[in-house]
Design goal:
With 196 residues, the protein is of the alpha+beta class. The protein has helices spanning 10-14, 37-54, 121-134, and strands at 20-25, 28-33, 69-73, 77-79, 82-84, 88-92, 111-115, 139-144, 149-156, 159-167, 171-172, 182-183.
Amino acid sequence: MAAPKRRATYEDLMQVPDTRVAEILDGELFVSPRPASPHAWAGTAIGAFVHSSFHGDGDPLAPARPGGWWIVFEPELHFVADVLVPDIAGWRRERMPSFPLVPYFTLAPDWVCEVVSPSTGRIDRSRKMRIYGREGVAHLWLVDPLLRTVEAYRRDDGAWIVDGVWDGDQSARIAPFPAVELPLARFWPPEPPATT
């Protein structure tokens, strides 16, 4: 009989070099490479667009925006023994009135965006999606920059429901941000130049 596996600890996670992304899911340490360029491009473009449209920092000189959100790139989330690092997350200001100056967040976000890649897609769609649901995340986007798709999910009666799937260069109003049309073409990395 095999000995039971030791549960990973935060100390184990802290031993992982900064050049990697480390998470603890269901007591197991997962280490992923830093995002490749398509993943990094999509995460940066989505984060910048959603932040500029919905963060609403109260600047009187800025154009009117819906506001009402704290949008954060790669926050560390601690849910009991699980430690997750989504690509982007957002908290409604009505649930988190002031932005905490902390090393990690224990309050579940209202929205999470995971940019999937060949090395992370399986974990994003299984373990992380289940943990986000358990912790009460209301909206989840799974974005695939290689397929150029956005899958949006919402929690309904304890289950993830597909809100919609968008692809290519269309524009869309996607919950929880339907007030602004999202130009999906801006989220995809440019095509490499053709070689002759």
